Automatic annotation (TrEMBL):
Residues 1-21, 490-518 are annotated as: Disordered. GO terms for biological process: tRNA wobble base 5-methoxycarbonylmethyl-2-thiouridinylation. GO terms for cellular component: cytosol; elongator holoenzyme complex. This is Uncharacterized protein. Residues 170-365 form the ELP1 TPR domain. It comes from Ditylum brightwellii. Residues 490-515 have a biased composition (Basic residues). InterPro entries: A-sol_ELP1, Elp1, TPR_ELP1.
């Protein structure tokens, strides 16, 4: 009846959105429970229901407990609090006829019945933990009384917690319930309470170490910093501990800032973090401030720093060579050169690093600064070697790009046709057929540098499209399998006289995956081939710098040859793109005319593949205007 009476007062509070006037089903159970509970609680306060029935306090106790238990998440704390209040109200009112008044009100029949009813909706273990979380040990005992929990276990435990200081008992309960944030707060409070009552010197530090251990164990550094905001000494220790935690997680860049943000900064920690993340500038900036021994610990401080500098230079160079981005790779190797020059005084190693980074002009500058003409010659020879390799590289790129671009146009049309037939469903999955496959995933390659065995730099590598497209497959793709070839073999035919043994298929990573002609995978391979054979920004900069350097050191003939070869490649790649786009546009126009002629809506059949914009944008830039003007005279 109470529920029905409450329903008439619905409105927006019952789950209706004022703007959309739609019911919010995500919270409907909670809203219904809250409304039912509100109506029943109001009826108990007034002592009469909406139908005029006279009721006493606690009349709707079980239904109200049900509304708490059925919410999501269940409001068990509120339910247990209601049971406790109801029991104490009954006890205070003197309504204890036939009951043992010496016992706790929570152990009386009504309270126990209420707990049993609530346990029917939520298990005893959950109720027990909830009561513990309220730090109400009498309530926890009342909950455990009718459960299957062993009294030999929970009674001594509850008794022990009752006898502990308040903060310590709460801390242990929080640890049991894995409420680590609350546990740390209570542990810190326990330290404050002990300090006020203790006269032992150093007790603060001993307790803080316990807190710090807990902070490290549960990664509560943020909360720890908040709790010890006014204690600079302890706050610094937490900051250092946080830095160490970040180092263990291989987050050197974050740890570096944390170590330096500590007051005062932890220089040793900052150096270790800087070394981990490859920030050699920060490392050496603080190396002079740290009095700790470097390296083996022998010799002067300068000699120790030099020994460490050599080690760090090797690390920086190695990490740089591992980077996929050519520009970042050059920057890292140039950084190693700077370390050799500034902290080791090793000009030869510095120039060697600059050569490895294809920074010919900088290598020459450093060599001349230190009057090392032998190193100047080394820079020139390295640039010459690099330029000669570029000539062959450009020819390969022209061949591979044009072949792949032609096939890309064909496969793109195949994919569009398939998409029109199947609908716009994204990628398509083709069953792999060894006999019908003439493609290999081994075609994919990056646009990285090929390191020379000499001290010269690197040349951008070329992806071989022949590994993607078979020799006879540029315009026509054969999908004839061994079964088709052997179709006419017989005992009268020498070709089929011997039974061919089946080769076991390779398994595991060593086995090459085959690509179905015209498939989505072939399209992806072709896109990678086109991208890797088009000059990227970093490689373009190296080529321009190499041409300029060769011209400046008197190798004008090679510089001019390299300039012309690059322009030939640029024209060939850009023309290939223009031709493909022109053909595609012509086909699109024909399709539009055909659709209009047949009375179809061309826009409904227009399909675009995700990779089109990226591939269409591929092109080679002209050389810088200064170089264009220089070579206009030769």
């Amino acid at each position: 009846e109470g529920t029905g009476g409450g329903g008439g007062g619905g409105g927006d509070d019952d789950g209706n959105d004022e703007k959309t006037n739609k019911f919010d089903f995500t919270t409907k159970v909670n809203r219904v429970c809250a409304k039912v509970r509100e109506v029943m609680t109001q009826a108990e306060l007034e002592g009469v229901t909406t139908t005029g029935q006279i009721i006493s306090s606690g009349h709707f106790l079980f239904p109200i407990l049900s509304t708490f238990a059925k919410e999501s998440p269940p409001k068990l704390e509120e339910a247990l609090t209601m049971i406790k209040n109801s029991a104490f109200d009954q006890f205070a009112s003197g309504d204890t006829a036939g009951m043992n008044t010496k016992r706790s009100p929570l152990l009386l029949e009504k309270a126990q019945n209420s707990i049993q009813y609530l346990a029917f909706l939520a298990n005893y273990e959950l109720l027990f933990d909830t009561a513990l979380g309220m730090y109400d040990f009498d309530l926890a005992k009342a909950v455990a009384r009718n459960s299957q929990m062993d009294p030999k276990v929970y009674l001594p435990m509850l008794k022990r917690w009752r006898n502990l200081p308040d903060a310590e008992a709460k801390y242990e309960v929080d640890v049991r319930l894995k409420r680590h944030d609350s546990a740390l707060k209570n542990l810190v409070q326990l330290g404050k309470d002990e300090t006020e009552s203790s006269e032992v010197a150093g007790s603060d530090d001993a307790h803080f170490e316990k807190c710090l251990s807990f902070i490290n164990e549960h990664k509560l550094h943020k909360l720890g910093l908040e709790l010890y905001e006014r204690h600079a000494h302890y706050k610094r220790k937490i900051m250092v501990a946080l830095g160490e935690q970040l180092l263990s997680e291989q987050k050197g860049d974050v740890a570096l800032t944390v170590f330096l943000a500590a007051n005062p900064s932890d220089i040793n920690g900052a150096k270790r973090a800087a070394r981990m993340c490859g920030d050699w500038k920060s490392y050496f900036a603080y190396a002079a401030e740290d009095d700790r021994d470097e390296g083996s610990g022998h010799g002067t401080k300068e000699s120790r720093i030099r020994a460490v500098a050599e080690s760090i230079a090797e690390e920086v160079c190695f990490k740089g060579e591992m980077k996929g981005d050519m520009q970042k790779k050059r920057e890292s190797i140039a950084g190693a050169a700077r370390i050799y020059l500034d902290y080791c005084g090793d000009v030869a190693s510095a120039v060697d690093m600059l050569i490895k980074a294809e920074m010919w002009s900088e290598g020459r500058r450093v060599s001349r600064l230190h009057s090392r003409e032998d190193l100047v010659k080394m820079c020139v020879d390295a640039a010459v070697s690099y330029g000669q390799k570029c000539l062959g590289d450009f020819e390969d790129r022209i061949s591979e790009f044009t072949k792949a671009n032609e096939r890309y146009g064909e496969v793109l049309e195949i994919r569009k046709d398939a998409k029109r037939e199947e609908g716009d469903t994204g990628a398509f999955d083709f069953h792999q057929d060894d006999g019908g496959s003439v493609f290999s995933m081994a075609s994919n390659a990056s646009n990285t540098s090929l390191q020379s065995n000499m001290s010269a730099g690197s040349v951008g590598s070329v992806t071989s499209v022949s590994s993607v497209i078979s020799a006879g497959a540029v315009s026509t793709f054969s999908i004839t399998s061994d079964v088709d070839v052997n179709k006419h073999k017989s005992k009268f035919n020498k070709l089929g006289g011997k039974k061919k043994k089946k080769r076991p298929k390779k398994k595991g990573p060593a086995a090459k995956r085959r690509i179905q002609p015209g498939s989505e995978e072939e399209l992806k391979s072709l896109v990678m081939t086109l991208k890797s054979n088009c000059i990227d920004e970093a490689y373009y900069d190296i080529i321009a710098e190499t041409i300029e350097f060769l011209a400046q050191v008197g190798r004008v003939s090679l510089a001019s040859q390299l300039f012309d070869s690059y322009n030939q490649m640029r024209v060939a790649i850009n023309d290939s793109q223009q031709n493909r786009l022109s053909k595609a546009k012509a086909k699109e126009e024909d399709a539009k005319k055909k659709a209009l002629k047949e009375g179809h809506d061309h826009d409904n059949t227009f399909v675009k593949i995700d990779c089109e914009d990226e591939v269409d944008a591929l092109c080679c830039k002209m050389m810088p205007d200064a170089l264009e003007q220089v070579f206009s005279f030769f």
